[in-house]
Amino acid sequence: MKLKASNYLWEMYYGGWAAPNIYFLGFAGVVKFGNLRIGGLSGIYKQPDFLKGHFDRPPYNGHTIRSVYHVREYDFHKLMQVEEPVDIFLSHDCPFGITDCGDWKELVREKPDFKQEVQERNLGSKPVAQLLEKLKPPYWFSADLHCKFAARVQHGEDGSVTNFLALDKCLPGRKFLQLVC
Fold this sequence. Notes:
Elements: H1 2-11, E1 16-19, E2 22-24, E3 28-33, E4 36-41, H2 47-50, H3 64-67, H4 73-80, E5 88-91, H5 104-110, H6 115-119, H7 126-135, E6 139-142, E7 149-154, E8 161-166
Parallel strand pairs: 4-5, 5-6, 6-8
Antiparallel strand pairs: 1-2, 3-4, 7-8
């Protein structure tokens, strides 16, 4: 399944309709939906592949089947050029340091495997944290924690706030959905 999804999403590098009522923002992009500007960075941060650019091409091998969905510096820099306000931002990875702004003890109770990463301050993506500080959207949604975790990021310079929310996998009995009004 990953092979087919990776092939298909690579063909929509700049975004497009992935299925009925499901729009893929592309590997990095911002779209306007009604009055909202929604931005996103697709993929997982892995330092060795970050600087390499998009070298993965079908047919994928054992390494490239995974590296094709790693975040690249090029896509990160495209988003760092965004000047207009973004209302909502979506990423797989959570921003580095996000646990400082929420109830990290509750996160560790839910996911004990995170305890060491939180204590050693290596949970999250530093490039995603840079995007958070640059864009300062009112809302940021993430998936990588695979559990519900909320945080409020206070931006010092202008007093703006980002409401961060990570949700769980879409499985029965999990906290994968929340309404935001």
